[in-house]
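Team,

Forwarding the record for the chain on the shared tracking sheet. I've put the sequence and predicted structure together so nobody has to dig through attachments.
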Amino acid sequence: MSITVRLWSEEDLAAIKLGEDKKLITIFLNGNTFSEEEIVCYPHHLRHTYSAEWEELEEPVKFYATDDETAIWFLQQEYTSLPAYLWEITTNYREVELPTKP
């Protein structure tokens, strides 16, 4: 991935926090390091995890996007071709009943 390191402006961080720009949020979600100001704005509630696999690559690429449409846009911006396969990774949790103590 060729994510560019950038400093986020106060305006960008405000837009990210408000969830106003899906493309900007997707770029932000795929950053590697965050400042204290940036981590406060991290939009966990908008993050979807995706896995892309190209036939010529051995390992799938994991990345984040706000939705399917923006995931495809992100791939078009970052790679020279779309992958052969694209999955959204979803995780489900369920409560497990524990035995009661006597």
